[in-house]
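Researcher: Next sequence.
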Amino acid sequence: MSDYDLEAVDRLPFSTPEKSQRYRTENYRGAVGLNWYETDPSLQLTMAYYLQPDELAVAEPHLRRIGALMGGPVARWAEQTDRNPARLERYDRWGHDISQVVQPTSFTESKRAVLDAQKALKDDARRARVNPSLPLYAANYLLDQADIGLGCALGTGSGMVKSLVAAYAPADVREHVLAKFETGEWEGETAQLLTERAGGSADEHRHQRRHGISDHHGHGLRVDTPAHAVRARIAPASMKGGMDVLCTAPPFKISPKPRCIRC
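Model: Next structure:
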C-alpha cells in the first residue's frame, strides 16, 4: 500500500478507540436516496474528458436522471427483490407441470424503468447524431452498483444474440431480429443457455442430433424469451470454434425430466 492510499487512522493499532471508531458500521448510512451520478466526481470527470462538449451536452442530462433513478427507485427495488426473489412455479392448480418463473414486481418495475431510461438516452443521441456508447457504459456502471443482478440480466443476453445474428444469420433473419432490438421490443427479453456437459464429443454430438438439445443438467431447454443464444458443440462449420448456436425459434421451456444428456 502506497502512502497515497494510507490515512492517518490506518497507522493506528486495531485496539485503539480511534481505530475502532473508523469501522463502526452505524456511521455508514448508505447512499440510497442520493443522485449517484452527481455524487461521483470521478465519473463526471471521465465523461467530460472523453466526450466532446456537444456530446456531453446531450448525455449529461440523461446521466443525471439515471443517477437519480439508480440511487433511488432501482436501489430500493433491488433490496425488495433480495427479500422476495424470483421463484419457480412448477405446477398449476391442476398439477400440470408449467415450470414458470415468477418475477417479483420489484424486478419487473426496475427493469422497465432502466430500459426506458436507456432508450431515452439512445433516442436523443440518435437525433443529435451522437454516439451513445460511452454514456451507456456510464449508465450500466451506475446500474451495476444499484442492482448487479439486473445488470447481468440486461447485459449478458442481447449483446450475444445481436452479434451472432449480425455475423452468421441469413439476411431475412438478421433483418427481422435486429429490427426487434432496434425498436426495443426484445431488449431485456433474451437469455443465454450453457449446454456443454460432454465437452462437444462426437458421441454427444450424435446423441444431441438424435434427441434434441439439453442443458448441462440433462433438462430439455425451454426459456420464455423470443430470442436466445445456446452454447453447444453443434455449430455449423462457418462459425469458428464450433461453439455458439443461435436459436430464434419458438420459445423453449425447462423440462423437469432429464433427457439427451447421459449422467
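Model: Residues 195-201, 210-224, 229-263 have pLDDT under 50 and may be disordered. The radius of gyration is 23 Å.
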